[in-house]
Amino acid sequence: MQQLLSRLFDIAEASGPYAWLSGREASQASGANAIKVSVWQALCLLAPYVDNIRRPEVMLRGWACLLNSHAHANIRPHVQLFMLAVFEKQPDAVTQYLLPALNAYNTTSYQVTVSVVIIVLFLLLELQPGSSPHFMPLLKAVLPWALHHRHAVRIPVQVLLHLVFSRHMTAIQQQLGQEAAGLMHQIQSFLTDNDETAKLRERQGLVDLAGFSLDYETSLEGVFGVREPLEQHCDGENDTKGLLWHCHVRDRLPLDILKYLPGAMKAIGRRYHKKAAAAAQGGGGMKAKEGEQLANDALGGEQAGASLGVEDGAAAGAGPAFYQFRPQVQFLPFDDAIADRIEALVAGRAARRGLVVCATLLDNLPNLAGLCRTCESMSVEALVLSNRSVTFTDAFKRQSVTSERWLRLLEVTVPDLPTLLRERKEDGYTIIGVEQATNSIPLQSYSFPECCVLLIGNEQNGIPVNLLPLLDVCLEIPMMGVTRSLNAHVTGAMVVWQYTQQRLPSTETSI
């Protein structure tokens, strides 16, 4: 567990070999951003099971990440959920982190302020005024933020404060003198009766705030937002929205980190089901130490010292329900069958190596869709796009004919291309470009290696000059006519077929 948490935080902090993740990407759809989302999703799954010995270090590193104002909006909710889960296990830490942050009124980043007040307010929903010494100090410290001029700060405070008062007002008044209790009651009455604040709450109607469950939010279903029964109805043909659960995790986590998760999930699942069975029989359930030992055993073994690396990401997916307004549903947290699918996914990704077609430089949607169909038909290892969201457009689907559902798609933006090519080269891939150059090799004369990356140039400008030194081989297609150029999709299709036909038995070389 310690190794897994440490490496996940190394990526989250963009430290050491992951320093290339330190910048803020221009788009939430970038591959680097998707890696960050997946890392925090994994941390959210593990947050409830961090033991007392590791929790101070985890809290320190998590808090430093929370204070980073450069994180995109699809990452920050996961950081908030992680910190909420950690604070819930160690409420004494609020005096070290949350109270000083709330009392610092001259903040420079309202994004950080929003995260802090959301954590505090959901923590107030979990705490009890009569039994927790931290409830009243947190409540008093968060009240002034209901007056903040930014709606991003003011609205969550007002909406959630109304719920806190509705749930705990009697106990709150018992903790206060008569005058202060009357003031709290007046604030509650305003939040309840004022038309504008009532409309604010109505706008959050998709969220069952009153049914918020931290246990649920840090479960597989809570983090990824896909229920097991839903997956059973997504048979591919009807899965038009890409709702298959394993599509949410595929290609996002570094492969070596992904290897650790099934064991952790199964260990935690056994702990959960044993506790539930013991509770049903009137017993006390499994002790935390025993569950922790199970998780440690599952994460240990011969892979415990493996080096953890980063692989290219896909589009980012779901986020915590308390931020993204998803209703609560019943759940079972960790199912062995889901863990088995992750193991199968890891095995499949590790075994399948061959031709990777990189279409990041292409702009034309018909070219991308046609190339997707060609790559799936020829069963290439992966197709790299600059933005996976194009695959959900009707124009793309009309030409791809569902091929995007069966082909591994990676998302790498143009600025990330040099990193992709270097990483693949270090992994033993030959980098091939299709470009007319002085040392270009005719396509029909080239013998393709087993593992290679095919970089297709932009429709108008070809392959940028800064990428040419990264190429191992330049191929060109001989031209016989007057036009002297080919469509980018056609060019890619010809090279993909040349690679494929070299690997077919001689008796199967006809299309």
What does the radius of gyration come to? 26 Å
End-to-end separation: 51 Å
What spatial order of strands do you see in the largest sheet?
3-2-1-6-4-7-5
Low-confidence stretches are: 228-256, 284-334
Task: Describe this protein's structure.
With about 500 residues, the chain is mainly alpha-helical. Helices cover about 50% and strands about 5% of the residues. It is built from 22 helices and 7 strands. Strands 3-2-1-6-4-7-5 form a 7-stranded parallel beta sheet. About 40% of the residues are buried. Residues about 230-255 and about 285-335 have low confidence and may be disordered.
Topology summary:
Layout: H1 2-12, H2 31-46, H3 55-66, H4 76-89, H5 98-103, H6 110-126, H7 135-142, H8 151-174, H9 178-193, H10 195-203, H11 214-217, H12 220-224, H13 228-232, H14 245-249, H15 255-280, H16 288-299, H17 321-324, H18 336-351, E1 355-358, H19 365-377, E2 382-385, H20 394-400, E3 409-411, H21 417-426, E4 430-434, E5 441-442, E6 452-455, E7 473-476, H22 488-501
